[in-house]
Structure prediction request, 349 residues.
Amino acid sequence: MLRAILSKHGRVYDFAYDSDTAEKIAEEMLTLSGSWDWALVKIGASAADEVKKSTELIRPKVGVITNIGEAHLAVHGTIEKIMHNKAQLLEGLEPGGWAVLNRDNEYVKALGERSVTATRFFGLSELADYFAANITPLGPEGTAFTVHRKNNAGLRLHLPIYSLGDVYNALAAIAVADGLGVPDTLIADGLEHDFMLPEGRGRLYRMADLMLFDDTYDATPQSLIKSTVCLMQCKENARRLVLVLGDMTELGSQADSYQKMIGHYLAGMPIDLVVLCGKRARSTAEAMRSGKQQVMTIMEFPLVSQVIEFLLNEIRPGDAVMVEGGANQDLSAVVQALRRTFEKAPETV
Prediction:
């Protein structure tokens, strides 16, 4: 999102998405040539002190933290240790640097309140410096919402995004761009005309009367809630709602309890078909079946190839399918198989 905006206002270098460690960032920096107005770098928190090493290397002017949750529990063990790791971003900003933080996440908010760094908060509350209101989910047509800022006019946007999580991401990008002096006209133009969700990050493919959401980059309890709400918004436009779910990742010793919790959560969702894949599929399915009885079909498979075989025989035009994948499984192969099949089929009128 930020690249789409800033590209309207200067030259932007966007580091490769997998350049998220100090070592990889340094390697890519050695290949840089030319002049740039801004550089966008994703700093990973998947190892102890990785954020500290990366910030010491690049000394960012602006640091953005959108979320602190269950991701990376396998590495850090507790939410508090994840907080400590991400706090190193704020501590490593260049003199005069500033932060953009999610006020609605209790852990991110706490970091901002403890830090001496100048901070711009975003969220859904009017207490935030940048907040969204009049959020209108439009199903497969995306989401419309109004961005409000203190002492500034509201900015109405209609974006190809399908979850509340991406509304938060848009607020973060707008807060950065506004702080860098980008006019509203360029912010709106960049987001509404040049932005598309990345592959694996909730992108929607529409083909032959099939709505296919690709959220296969990773799977956490928070991302699952986002994805199921997204799927619900298509209920009026779809014949059936189908969720394909891989094992949660990076949850460490709490993985089994989270998988069961997910099963109880899904048992209450008005989803027609849930297809589970992975080593923990059975425990999730058992938790679902022990919950509220409803008209829901639950299928479980250990292998991605089995999921693909089943879906190619099961999915029909008019279905809305959300594929939510974990980093330890290549559920993007499911998306690719469905695209190959349905992109060849003619749409009905």
Notes: Residues 164-179 form the longest helix (16 residues).
